[in-house]
What does this fold into?
Amino acid sequence: MRLLEDQHVHTYYSPCARKEDAKGQPVASPERYIERAVALGLKTLIFTDHFVEDPSAPEMIVQFYKGSGPAILRDLRTELNRLEVPDDLALYIGCETETLAPGRPAISRALAEKLALVLVPTTHYHLAGVPQPLSFSPQDVADHMLMMLESVVRLGWVDAIAHPFDERESLVGDLRRIYEAMDKRHLEEVLGLAAEKGVALEVNGSAINSPARPHYPEMFLPVVQQAKALGVRFTFGSDAHTLGMLGTSPENEAWFAQAGLEAADFLTTREFLAKKGLL
Ligand SMILES: [Zn+2]
Ligand SMILES: [Zn+2]
It folds into this structure.
């Protein structure tokens, strides 16, 4: 199953998406993504650059986000307004924010409600300054991952959790060991809470394909199956940082089939807009 919406795309307004091609031209420009989306037959893109509402706040100690404030949303919107967009391609602006402390995303509810999609990651352990587990033992990582996930799901107003339980295995170790160490009753409670609160889980195309987390597809599969059985809905995003990553890959499609995911399990962007009164 191919999906025609890509709900997690980084442009060059993200500090980690500034690659250039052989001619020195940026490869993650909105303009080039539009061309690529048309070539792939995609119908919807949501640009979700890394974003924090107040990069100058005293608790905002993650250096990575110092240039990721409101100006990037404004500039991206202005840039999109100047571009020619084919009628059958819909473009929206969302963001991937950060979780600064348990239950504290780096975006306010008021602003989150104005954006098409707010993805909230809770496991960016590679960034110094984001909440960290006590140690990188499987038990400590498993406990921390569940605690952080629950704290954000409980808020109820975030749209989706970005790449749940994902982190590079050179940092956190084998993700299968982390899943084994997870308190399964707690996991079930948190997934049930996500269903009840209407907080989606992201199926992240890059995480499923990434050689840096070889066991993520295996680890995340039973989580998704259990979540689906409990009534959780999903978003799909490639997490593209360059053109070549846009859309669903053949590996992603094979994984959807294995997980038993169907198109109806994924929230469309129009469903988010309708829910938020943005249509
Ligand atoms: Zn992320
Ligand atoms: Zn991302």
In short: Residues 96, 121, 124, 162-163 surround zinc ion (ligand 1) (CB under 6 Å). The chain has a mean pLDDT of 97. The chain has one domain: 5-275. DSSP finds eleven helices and ten strands in the chain.
